[in-house]
Each structure stands twice: as C-alpha cells, then as structure tokens.
Amino acid sequence: LHAARCLEQYDRIAREAQIAAALPATISELVARLYAEIDPRLRPAAAQTIAAHLIKLEREGRAAFKDGRYV
Predict the structure, then answer these.
(1) d(CA 1, CA 16)
(2) pLDDT < 50 stretches in the chain
(3) Of 19, 27, 30, 50, which residue is least crowded by CB atoms under 10 Å?
(4) 65 - beta bridge partners?
C-alpha cells in the first residue's frame, strides 16, 4: 500500500511538472498537448485534473491567470 501511494505521488508530481513546463497556455491547449493520446470523451475529466493542478500552482505562486491564459 505504501509503494502504491509513493507511485501515485510521483505521478502527480510528474504531471504537475509537465503542466508548469507547458505554460503559458490555456486549459484546452494543455489538454491537447498533455493528453493527446486519450479518448476524446475523457478530455473533460483531463481538463478538470489540469485545472486542479493549476489551482495548486497558483496558490504556490508558480502560475497565474492573465489575459485568458495561465502563465
């Protein structure tokens, strides 16, 4: 169970780093770039995941929303 949590934490941190590195971008652009391989029906869920990461990055001062894009 501990190993599974560690792996989950690693995956979350890796995805967060990908999102931060892809800025500036809109959520739609991030979905297209980072989740290009997924079934299009799952893209709304991917957008919600990205939005959650961006909220965290904003709270940490690592991202901001300006002129319709996250920077």
Answers:
(1) 23
(2) none
(3) 27
(4) 70
Interatomic CA distance for residues 71 and 67, integer angstroms: 9
Q: For residue 9, count CB atoms less than 10 angstroms from its CB and return exposed for 0-12, middle for 13-18, buried for 19 or more.
A: exposed
pLDDT digits (tens, 9 = 90+) for 33-42: 999 999 999 9
- Sequence-distant contacts of 19-26: CB under 8 A, at least 24 apart: 19/50, 19/53, 19/54, 19/57, 20/57, 20/62, 20/63, 23/63, 23/70, 23/71, 24/69, 24/70, 24/71, 25/69, 25/70, 26/68, 26/69, 26/70
Gap between the Cα atoms of 67 and 43, Å rounded: 23
**CA 59/CA 46 separation, integer angstroms:** 20
> Alpha-carbon distance 41 to 12, whole Å?
22
